[in-house]
Amino acid sequence: MVAGSIRPVRSIPGQMRAVVLDAPGPPEALVIRQLPIPTPDGDEVLIRVKAFGLNRSELHTRLGLAEGVVFPRVLGIEATGFVAECPGGAFRTGQKVVAMMGGMGRLFDGGYAEYTSVPTSQVVPFESKLDWATLGAVPEMLQTAYGSLTVGLDAQPGQTILIRGGTSSVGMATAVLAKRRDMTVFSTTRNPDKAGALQQIGVDHVVIDDGEVAAAVRTIVPEGVDAALELIGTPTLPDTLAATRVHGVVCFTGMLSNEWTVKDFYPIDYLPRGVRLTAYGGDAADLPPGTLQQFLDAVAAGDATVPIHRRYTMNEIAQAHADMEAGIASGKLVVTT
Ligand SMILES: NC(=O)c1ccc[n+]([C@@H]2O[C@H](COP(=O)([O-])OP(=O)(O)OC[C@H]3O[C@@H](n4cnc5c(N)ncnc54)[C@H](OP(=O)(O)O)[C@@H]3O)[C@@H](O)[C@H]2O)c1
């Protein structure tokens, strides 16, 4: 356990347990507190949260790198559970739902709690008998992977794809979806010990990332890959572009290095001839209910995997954040309430 970790707090009627951040700080700055259960207005849904995934975005907020966050704040850009109240009638009480983005955990209190009240537009319904921890790992990870593959890359069956930052939860979810589209997947990691975790989800070629992978990729596909997903950021982007074929597409979705700007961008010098660069930043609207349902059904049938590294209880939130910050995971960290 992380030193100074949290003592269990029991819920009392009308109140909920929530993880609150009073100001940026170390993992121990996340404290469990009793707060009133929020009251949803006409355009909101009150969700009884059963599980939530951890995201880099929340790490940025905790480290004080996120702009526009007012403290104290209940973090959490996603949540999974069931509808406790929906005054507008868009969803029925008891319906299973996921919610994500739209300012959750940044502009208003988010998913690190027993209840969260979010705009109806951020809610996606589903039906599934999978356990809550598995379900809780899915929304943001699937939405980002699916949006990157479709909106960002327009990836097609049979194509090759390079996933730069392959052991991240988004990277692993993208690999799972890409394999379901009969793509050939190259995934990078800096850590050879994580190769097995990538092979287990179906990655065809694990590439050890020492900062330059284009040459290694081109020994297997000399013309370069058809598609590449950049999750490390601008330090590796030129090399990812160099691994991609003429008329291939690179989508910039993540910045695990915490570096996301290109200084003095001169396109003719920066971009290899004919290689296309796009970007993806997602929202709940990019995850159609049918896509979520199909994925969950495939998981239930054993035809798809949810790449989960570890499950935690809410009392272990400081440990979970310390693990995210240390980058030890291969896949999603998920917390049950
Ligand atoms: N655009 C969007 O809509 C959107 C939505 C969600 C997430 N994202 C972004 O997508 C990225 C992935 O998010 P995630 O939650 O899936 O991450 P994650 O699971 O926390 O990723 C962990 C992995 O990142 C790698 N890593 C950590 N620090 C690194 C560094 N400095 N340089 C290179 N690799 C590093 C490590 O891999 P190895 O040790 O194996 O190398 C580690 O296993 C993040 O940048 C996140 O902000 C974007």
Each distinct ligand:
NADP nicotinamide-adenine-dinucleotide phosphate
Estimated structural class: alpha/beta
Percent of residues in helices comes to: 10-25%
Give the tally of structural domains. 2
The succession of helices and strands, N to C, reads EEEHEEEEEHHEHEHEHEHEHEHEHE
- The CATH top-level class label of the largest domain: Alpha Beta
Please give the number of β-strands: 16
The poorly predicted ranges are: 1-6
For the residues shown, what is the average pLDDT? 95
Task: Write the CATH architecture name of the largest domain.
Answer: Alpha-Beta Complex
Descriptive notes:
Mean pLDDT is 95; it is low at 1-6. The chain has two domains: 15-138 and 307-336, Medium-chain alcohol dehydrogenases, catalytic domain (Quinone Oxidoreductase, Chain A, domain 1, Alpha-Beta Complex); 140-279, Medium-chain alcohol dehydrogenases, catalytic domain (Quinone Oxidoreductase, Chain A, domain 1, Alpha-Beta Complex). The protein is built from ten helices and 16 strands. The chain has 337 residues and is an alpha/beta fold. α3 (139-152) packs across α4. The two termini are 18 Å apart. Strands 3, 5, 6, 7, 8, 15 and 16 form a seven-stranded mixed beta sheet that branches. The protein has helices spanning 56-62, 132-136, 139-152, 169-180, 195-200, 214-220, 237-242, 267-270, 289-300, 317-326; strands at 15-21, 30-36, 44-53, 73-74, 78-85, 96-100, 115-119, 123-125, 160-164, 184-189, 205-208, 225-230, 244-252, 276-279, 308-313, 332-336.
